Amino acid sequence: PYSDADPCWLRYTKNESLEGIPRLAKITVHGSSEQIRSALAELVYGMTEMTGSVPETAEDPNGLEANVVRLVQFDEALPERLRELAPFHDLHEEGYVIRSVPENGGESILVAGKSGKGVLYGTFHLLRLMQTGDLRSGLQILENPRNGLRMMNHWDNMDGSIERGYAGQSIFFKDNEFVRDQARIRDYARLVASVGINGVAINNVNVHKTETQLITSRFLPDVAEVAGIFRRYGIALFLSVNYASPIELGGLDTADPLDSRVRAWWKEKAAEIYGHIPDFGGFVVKADSEHRPGPFTYNRTHADGSNMLAEALAPYGGIVVWRCFVYNCLQDWRDRTTDRARAAYDHFKPLDGQFKQNVVLQIKNGPMDFQVREPVSPLFGAMPETNQMAEFQITQEYTGQQKHLCYLVPQWKEVLDFDTFARGKGTEVKKIVAGETYPYAHSGMAAVINVGDDPNWTGHTLAQANLYGFGRLAWNPDLSEEAITAEWIRLTFGKDEKVYQVLRSMLAESWRVYESYTSPLGIGWMVNPGHHYGPNVDGYEYSVWGTYHYADCRGMGVNRTVKDGTGYTAQYYPENMERYESPETCPDELLLFFHHVPYTHTLHSGKTVIQHIYDSHFEGVEGVEAFIERWQGLEGRIDAKRHAQVMERLRIQLAHAREWRDVVNTYFFRKSGIEDRHGRPIY
Ligand code: GCU
User: Residue limits of the Glycosyl hydrolase family 67 catalytic domain (predicted)?
Assistant: First the structure.
């Protein structure tokens, strides 16, 4: 490590079972890429910490050494002997094999990849096996990433603040400059590379004045330095850019994508950027959204806008990540025909087939905005001829802001496993964004990250699990929640069985617990405007953002049916459309997202809507009380510092969960006038 920040899951504690194993005494290397060098450094460090002695290292281009750990990157010079040991033809560019190879009466461990990145990922996998005590002989592992793009989106501003950040200040920027001490950036690169992340956009999608200049000579040398750190860990650097850059930086009077001067400006700009960073990843763009500039100003489409940028980046292999979070944020609450949920599909679906090959549309997991519960965006699978990728939110904007425990892997699993029926049964979102359903040139998963410069990176120590889990799912969306959780707990807190059982249960329950004391049955929002924390049922009800619950004395919910609502359900393929269209078949947890119903409507659970609201809000608070009790039981079993830190957060969570419960319950009690069946106090 380069800094004294929390090592998170790269915690290489001493492990007696690894001591004195002959093959762990020496590491040999074939290959010279920067990434294989990082792999070697990480392995030496990890093994030293875990075995208590420093392994010897040697270059071994011919693979002559036996009974060692051998890192091998494929190249033309690879000797026959080593070629035969690894099935390179089964590997993608970033895949790897880990194999036990019997030799000279002993055994070597081979970590091999086609690229340095592959070897790096394989090395982190090997380290995981050592950390969790799962290093056995007879290893036969072959892994290829399912998603090509595995990205982190930072919403960091150059003044050091982080939009929707809950873990301190930016690790990249301070006072409108790049930070000088790069230790945290290096450790950050290790952390995210260890879970397979291969792209990072370092600045906020809302690109303000100073950040607009990131693509100018003022900052490009600094950007290149960070890109250099990332490169060693196989990470491509991306920048969020201001669509109006030709005006703001280039002195042009337009940013019209069809204007030849604008196109020439971007081409020159791309040449300049690649002059500094030959492997620059590309641009992330938020256009025509929440007051950001975009092609609509010039009566052009989002295909026109993104293609212009794509054309500039194409000669260098760069890509344009174009966000689909485009909607009218100046709605009148009386206007029942405009539906924010429809916006992404309505804007983008008609443009299918018009985007260049190096544009990829980044679609938020749901049609609204990272709520604790919302349906899956119907845009997934709706554009066979346009590259798509999914955007998730690790930072807990609407899920407790890292004060509350809310493990999001279960939510992401539901999204990834959601069957769109785009090409019949079995067309899950995970297959679409992996480019398996339609042959996309670029696709994958991105997430808004939850780290800042807090000593533990994520504010809430247990929020590290979300970062870990996202990376693992981006690598392989078929990994089970249980498997990811077990890995993370063992890597982060060791192998105490009680610690495992308690943490496993807390993590597994936390999303539903959070959901139950906040907004009911898929309705979302009901938070304080602006910062989005804390209960405020009508916070957004009479404002322009298009996020309504329409509660009155009779009932609540948004009618999004084709029959007599906004027609949103028609954006799904028929199987899903039919399921959501009728309150009879609509799942309880999404009922109020799709339907306006009386408080007395009976759910599949057998409860009325109003009784569900009361019960779930009481139960949610009890859930948090149970977390505290269980966590209390771990005192002395994990280090005092982390124990106390989590306990402090849980206590805040409890106090705020009570407030949520009381505010929401009293609101609906007073609206509906219906008593709680159990006669509990409602304020
Ligand atoms: C949310 C969030 C904003 C963010 C936006 C986006 O609305 O509150 O801070 O800019 O999403 O994803 O662009």
Answer: 130-457
Q: What is d(CA 441, CA 359) in angstroms, rounded to the nearest whole number?
A: 9
Compute φ and ψ for 452, nearest 5 degrees. Answer: -145, -165
Ligand 1 atom 12: the closest Cα is on which residue?
A: 325
pLDDT, one tens digit per residue, over 400-457 is 999 999 999 999 999 999 999 999 999 999 999 999 999 999 999 999 999 999 999 9
Mean pLDDT on 177-199: 98
Alpha-carbon distance of 600 to 595, in angstroms, equals 14
Q: DSSP states of 388-431 as a string?
A: EEEEEE-S-TTTTTTTS----HHHHHHHHH-B--BTBTT-BHHH
The answer to whether 472 and 195 have CB atoms below 8 angstroms apart is yes
Q: Coil, helix or strand for 199?
A: strand
In sequence order, the 6+-apart residues with CB closer than 8 A to the CB of 412 are 365, 392, 469, 470, 473
Tell me if 468 sits within 8 A of 195, measured CB to CB.
Answer: yes
Closest by Cα among 567, 551, 392, 262 to 559: 567
Q: Which atom of ligand 1 is nearest to the CA of 448?
A: 12
Tell me the pLDDT tens digit for each residue of 571-583. Answer: 999 999 999 999 9
Q: Which of 155, 164, 531 to mutate to test the pocket of ligand 1 (most atoms within 8 A of CB)?
A: 164
Average pLDDT over residues 584-591: 98
Please tell me if the CB atom of residue 161 comes closer than 6 angstroms to any atom of ligand 1: no
Count Cα atoms within 13 angstroms, Cβ side, for 196.
Answer: 29
Interface confidence (ipTM) of the complex: 0.99
Ligand 1 nearest atom to the CA of residue 391, by list position: 12
3-state SS assignment for residue 456 = coil
> Nearest-CA neighbor of 132 among 558, 496, 633?
496
23: confidence class by pLDDT, cuts 50, 70, 90: confident
Task: Answer yes or no: is pLDDT of 19 > 90.
Answer: no
What are the pLDDT digits (tens) for 48-74?
999 999 999 999 988 888 999 999 999
Of 629, 583, 621, 618, the residue nearest 604 (C-alpha) = 583
pLDDT of residue 38: 98
What kind and span of H or E run contains 59? strand 56-59
pTM: 0.98
Map tokens 């009380």 to a residue: 625
pLDDT at 21 over 90: no
Q: For 459-518, write each residue's pLDDT tens digit.
A: 999 999 999 999 999 999 999 999 999 999 999 999 999 999 999 999 999 999 999 999
- SS3 category, 102: strand
Marked catalytic residue, from 59, 90, 290, 675:
290
Q: What is the mean pLDDT of residues 295-301?
A: 97
Q: Are 583 and 561 in contact (CB under 8 A)?
A: no
N-to-C CA span, the chain: 52
Q: Under 8 Å CB-to-CB from 352, ≥6 apart: which residues?
A: 382, 383, 384, 385, 386
Return the axis-axis angle of helices 220-232 and 34-51, rounded to nearest 10°. Answer: 60
Instruction: Determine the pLDDT at residue 284.
Output: 98
Whether 419 is catalytic is no
User: Does residue 310 surpass a pLDDT of 90?
Assistant: yes
Provide DSSP, 300-341: --HHHHHHHHHHHHGGGT-EEEEE-----S---TT--S--GG
